[in-house]
Write a structure and sequence with these properties.
- By secondary structure, this protein is α/β, with parallel strands linked by helices.
- 44% of the residues lie in helices and 14% in strands.
- The protein has an 8-stranded mixed sheet with strand order 1-2-4-3-5-6-7-8, with helices on both faces.
- Helix 4 packs across helix 5.
- The protein is globular and about 70 Å long.
- The N and C termini lie far apart (73 Å).
Length: 319
């Protein structure tokens, strides 16, 4: 028995050591590209590009602001001041106080995430922005609009979570988001997950299109695989649905222009569950469905998103 305990302790020590080593390597390979703001004691990573009306970009689950910097954000800097943030727990933004300690729960609700990013935007003197959210970032963008309806020029939703969905989210979210899973399983993922698995996951997210060459290295998937980020992502996603249910009751208050763009081949956030339903809940919504497109529209159909931003700016009187 004693020997078994010693061997278990050694195994745990090896896993944690290797996880820490891989995290250090990932952080060295993918440093911050913007500035780190101190917002109520939480570090928030922000990147500001270009000049013009303010445009905030909010990334989805498992990502960071680099997801928009493979050419998409650069297409907008000639006519917008583009502000990109890492969401709480992802990239180089810290977790919100009180998050991560309870079984399968998180304090990082869409409303709390929006509030943190709004304070960061205030520090950057952002005024009356267009707010674009992709995937999970879409529900954070909606929370932004609900909390600041008079200081949000428009929303642009790209393959966005917006409505309650049926069914569960899969065992990995449940395990990674739980207290024992976060303590035992997550470090093993960080320490040992092979590159082939990461590449397969990226391919699944981009399907039926292909990921751009070098996408994983540019994004810095090692940042997502850090223990803290894996737990944050799982807990945020697991805890999301009840907040969407409550938010949906208030969608009639979203009186700003809303441009939604969604692929009809998106199996990650299906259009018929989210964007199509949302159009019946908001006063000024417009939806463009892209035939054959999947989930990663900022990479596979960037021109459509740029056009949606320009339409939103025109409707809001910014152009």
């Amino acid at each position: 028995m004693f020997l078994a305990l010693v061997l278990l302790a050694v195994l745990i020590g090896v896993v944690q050591w290797r996880a820490a080593a891989r995290e250090a390597a990932a952080e060295a390979a993918t440093p911050p590209v913007g500035q780190i703001l101190n917002i109520d004691g939480v570090p928030v990573h922000a990147l500001v590009m270009g000049e013009g009306p303010d445009l905030v970009l909010i990334h989805g689950a498992s990502g960071n602001l680099r997801d928009f910097t493979t050419g998409f954000a650069e297409q907008l800097t000639d006519r917008y001041r583009v502000i990109l943030f890492d969401r709480p727990g992802m990239g180089w933004t810290g977790r919100l106080p009180g998050s991560g300690g309870a079984w399968n729960t998180s304090e990082e609700t869409p409303q709390a995430q929006a509030a943190l990013l709004q304070k960061a935007a205030d520090a950057l003197e952002v005024r009356n922005p267009i707010v674009l959210g992709h995937s999970f970032g879409g529900i954070v963008a909606i929370a932004w609009g609900l909390s600041r309806p008079d200081d949000t020029a428009a929303l642009v939703l790209a393959g966005a979570v917006s409505e309650p969905w049926p069914g569960g989210l899969g065992w990995t979210y449940t395990v990674n988001g739980s207290l024992p899973g976060g303590a035992l399983f997550v470090p093993m993922v960080t320490a040992f997950v092979p590159k082939s698995y990461v590449e397969a996951s990226i391919n699944a997210i981009f399907a039926p299109q292909e990921a751009p060459a070098g996408y994983g290295d540019h994004l810095g998937t090692g940042l997502t695989l850090r223990r803290t980020s894996l737990r944050a992502n799982a807990q945020q996603v697991n805890a999301l649905r009840p907040h969407v249910v409550e938010m949906q009751k208030k969608y009639a208050r979203l009186t700003m222009p809303i441009e939604a763009v969604h692929g009809d081949a998106d199996t990650i956030v299906p259009a018929h569950i989210h964007a199509e339903v949302l159009m019946g809940d908001v006063p000024r919504g417009a939806l463009k469905i892209l035939p054959g497109q999947g989930h990663m529209l900022q990479h596979t159909a960037p021109g459509e998103l740029v056009a949606a931003i320009d339409r939103a700016a025109a409707h809001a009187g910014l152009r």
